Give the backbone structure.
Amino acid sequence: MSAGEKAKAKTEQVVGKAVKKTAHAAGKDTTAAKGAALEARGEARESKEKAKDTFKR
């Protein structure tokens, strides 16, 4: 996994989690869902990069 892609994936996860928790606390369901989607996208990106690394070996 390249360092840039790994950082991007982790950033999406952290930002998504923060948005989700903040919006949930404020009662903003739509924004909380967007945060959850961003977090899931970061997790998917991370797993995709790990799969690429597995097949490179």
About this structure: The first helix runs from residue 3 to 26. The mean pLDDT is 91.
